[in-house]
Automatic annotation (TrEMBL), chain A:
Domain Flagellar basal-body/hook protein C-terminal: 197-239
Keyword entries, A-Z: Bacterial flagellum, Cell projection, Cilium, Flagellum
Family assignment from sequence similarity: Belongs to the flagella basal body rod proteins family.
Domain Flagellar hook protein FlgE/F/G-like D1: 85-146
Protein name: Flagellar basal-body rod protein FlgF
GO BP term, pick one: bacterial-type flagellum-dependent swarming motility
Compartment(s): Bacterial flagellum basal body
Main location as per UniProt: other
Subunit-structure text: The basal body constitutes a major portion of the flagellar organelle and consists of five rings (E,L,P,S, and M) mounted on a central rod. The rod consists of about 26 subunits of FlgG in the distal portion, and FlgB, FlgC and FlgF are thought to build up the proximal portion of the rod with about 6 subunits each.
From TrEMBL, chain B:
Taxonomic placement: Bacteria, Pseudomonadati, Pseudomonadota, Gammaproteobacteria, Thiotrichales
Lipid metabolism in keyword set: no
Transmembrane portions of the chain: none
Name of the protein described by the UniProt record: Flagellar basal-body rod protein FlgG
Keyword annotations of the record: Bacterial flagellum, Cell projection, Cilium, Flagellum
Compartment list: Bacterial flagellum basal body
């Protein structure tokens, strides 16, 4: 068959994949702490005998945009957000260390401090945090967690633990299949990172950009289909020229 | 089938779930003792369409550095109850009580199950027993004789009544409160009541003014803690995000339509 048809088909197929990625960004436009994914196309030349005239399109996720999202003040003690390049650590379901910039935490009946998905938040030693029954829990700007014991008659706060705060190189961060961000390069040390409690980081999806992208991708798709149509017309024409009648 | 269509569908579902949570908050903006809820989301799993490091061509030197992982949308993971204290509304009704602290009043429903509430608009039923506004008996039971004229409820929960002929008020009973280690884990059962769950932990029954249970304020009610400004802002956000996701649905539909009409 005509090469043109296959090349146009690969273009349309990859544009549809890219549209799915863009749709995922938009669907998560209000997911707290979500980081939007980049998307790019690459030309894949077909090597071989003859003229190198064929270049298929290939869609790929070249990375994730780690720019901070807008901060939303909630006033809830256990909502925390880290500043600038800092991240705090939680334990992903597979046991590995995942990094988040913002967490809406709560305390389980057993006293474990967990994030909104129920995964444990880690302390500076990398182990889950447990807090005894408390009247009030507060988180200081250096990540120190202090609490007022439930049986306390005074107003003296007791220090419980410290959040694990790290400052990874953005280049080493990768989003996994479970949506968690992980550090791929070397061990990270506890860093001096400021945290703010009573606030959450919202999604960093740029909705205007995503909508513009969406329109662009739709039009690109139509162009590919048009090319497929043209290729069909060519084939029909040559068939009719060569027909025996 | 078209992935973008399904991903946008999860976005639409998420936002309508959020709008439902917001509208429930706004609907209860004037419900005594109501605690607002916040819809929480997470991104769904990602799919590996092309593994990073896969070979791009037959030439072994040419591998894909970044691959393609496609997200599959968004999921609502629940409504987190925010247990901040609502404003005090002074009613001067002698049977209205407000809990200033973390405690909950206990009540028994018609089947004898224990329910917990922050709504302290108490009333007296036909037998003279103290009941909640929905008619459930307060636990432990407090009976108020018919001839009692004035009822006083002290900050530590002692209910006393003035009987004619007596100079001293008679102690009629003691209000008790229950606290939970994780009130956000309580199950809302409607009518301003909560039920104990595994997540909330077991209730600790205690008198008011002990530990963190809080004190009783007679003649006042706790209004809902719904911040209407915040809810309206969230509503606008939910609506706009919904619109954007519906645009993706029509874009994906447009792509398929174009393909069907032209090939």
């Amino acid at each position: 068959m005509d090469r043109m048809l296959y090349i146009a088909m690969s273009g349309a197929k990859e544009v549809a994949l890219s549209q799915a990625n863009n749709a995922n960004n938009l669907a998560n436009a209000t997911t707290d702490g979500f980081k939007q994914d980049f998307n790019q196309f690459r030309a894949m030349h077909v090597e071989g005998p003859g003229w190198n005239s064929r270049a298929y399109a290939l869609d790929e996720r070249s990375g994730t945009d780690f720019t901070p999202g807008p901060i939303k003040v909630t006033g809830r003690d256990l909502d925390v957000v880290t500043k600038e390049n800092g991240f705090m650590a939680v334990q992903a379901p597979d046991g590995s260390e995942a990094l988040v910039r913002s967490a809406s935490m709560h305390v389980t009946p057993e006293g474990d401090l967990v994030d909104v998905r129920g995964d444990p938040v880690l302390n500076e030693g990398g182990s889950p945090i447990n807090i005894p029954p408390a009247k009030k829990i507060s988180i200081a700007s250096d990540g120190t967690i202090s609490f007022l014991p439930a049986d306390s008659q005074t107003n003296i706060m007791v220090t419980a633990d410290q959040l694990r705060l790290v400052e990874p190189d953005i280049k080493n961060l990768q989003k996994g299949l479970d949506g968690y961000i992980r550090n791929t390069g070397g061990n990270l040390d506890q860093a001096i990172v400021k945290v703010t409690s009573g606030a959450l980081e919202t999604s960093n999806v740029n909705t205007v950009e995503a909508l513009t992208n969406m329109i662009e991708l739709s039009r690109k798709y139509e162009m590919q289909v048009k090319m497929m149509n043209t290729s069909k017309a060519h084939a029909q024409k040559s068939d009719s020229l060569l027909s025996l009648s | 089938m078209e992935r973008a269509l399904y991903v946008a569908k999860t976005g639409l579902e998420g936002q309508s779930f959020r709008l439902a949570a917001i509208s429930n908050n706004i609907a209860n903006a004037n419900t005594y003792g109501f605690k607002s809820g916040r819809a929480e989301f997470e991104d769904l799993m990602y799919q590996n369409v092309r593994q990073p490091g896969a070979q791009a061509t037959q030439d072994e030197a040419n591998t894909l550095p970044s691959g393609l992982q496609l997200g599959t949308g968004v999921k609502a993971i629940g409504v987190q109850k925010i247990f901040t204290e609502g404003n005090a509304m002074i009613t001067n009704n002698q049977l209205d009580v407000m809990i200033q602290g973390k405690g909950f009043l206990r009540a028994l429903d018609q089947n004898g199950n224990i329910l917990y509430t922050r709504d302290g608009s108490l009333q007296v039923n036909q037998n003279g027993d103290l009941v909640t506004s929905s008619g459930y008996l307060i636990d432990p039971n407090i009976n108020i004789p018919q001839n009692v004229t004035e009822i006083t409820i002290s900050s530590d929960g002692q209910v006393a009544g003035q009987e004619p002929g007596n100079t001293q008020p008679t102690v009629l009973g003691q209000l008790e409160l229950s606290t939970f280690i994780n009130p956000a884990g309580l199950e809302s059962v409607g009518q301003n009541f909560y039920k104990e769950t595994l997540a909330s932990g077991t209730p600790q029954d205690k008198n008011p003014e002990t530990d963190e249970a809080g004190s009783i304020l007679q003649g006042a009610l706790e209004s809902s803690n719904v911040n209407t400004v915040e809810e309206l802002v969230s509503m606008i956000e939910a609506q706009r995000t919904y619109e954007m996701n519906s645009k993706v649905v029509s874009a994906a539909d447009g792509m398929m339509k174009y393909l069907n009409n032209n090939v």
